[in-house]
């Protein structure tokens, strides 16, 4: 169904679809004529040029400047300066969670990009959305100073809650080819998720700090393989938006050649799917400039206090370097205007 057709539906039809509207990307045979067809079928899709390439490179530049701004020795033009002592704390998967980074103005700039918001408005057939205050991904090639980033295949959704619930996204900021690290997805795995969890209910659980995460064991991986699932690397150009259903098994890898990988996670959901309690918790996270998981309903909120060598990082900061300046559209994405 095209967006034009959607907008010709009566308000009643639209509101009855709300919450079920998500069915539109849940394996139906409906034809959208855009990226939603791939999302429905494969569980992932690329929106090419969601942000103009030049602008994406400007965001990448802002991210490098943010890293260099710690003045710890990292220099974007000197690969030998990629050492953990020269950088803020990044885990081996490339995540940077602290230092107010989820609320830096340039991060909010990406979240507020019309091409990114538009994709999610189409997915949910809803303009009243909230956005996650997600971590940022910064991966450098061939690091030996952090543990190896071995595959960590997972779903970001509670295995006991079936059906489509949350679309995940990231904006890719640098050229990202087959060997440049980044997102690896299991094509079509979202549609097998319910069957998987029913058949594999007795499988041991990889410990997870949130119920909205499920890690695949070797047996789980074998099940996916036996059911014809293939893993593939999603390649992208600067400004491309990568989307995947939270049920789609996935992980990331680190770059292997010379190209860094920079990405900003951008996940949106209808505000109608959040409770007032969620929105209050989300407001508190915004006010304290802390992060959330990929889930925009802010079930879990983070901290700005990074740990370096077993102690609070002396370079911690509790607020972004450049506090976000939010336009009206972006402010709605915080959920705050929807608090009654
Ligand atoms: O960095 C990526 O491409 C994926 C990250 C991811 O799966 C996660 O943070 O849950
Ligand atoms: Fe994930």
UniProtKB/TrEMBL annotation:
PANTHER family: PHYTANOYL-COA DIOXYGENASE, PHYTANOYL-COA DIOXYGENASE-RELATED-RELATED. This is Phytanoyl-CoA dioxygenase. It comes from the Eukaryota. The lineage of its organism: Eukaryota, Fungi, Dikarya, Ascomycota, Pezizomycotina. Residues 292-317 are annotated as: Disordered. InterPro entries: Phytyl_CoA_dOase-like. Signal peptide: none annotated. SUPFAM superfamilies: Clavaminate synthase-like.
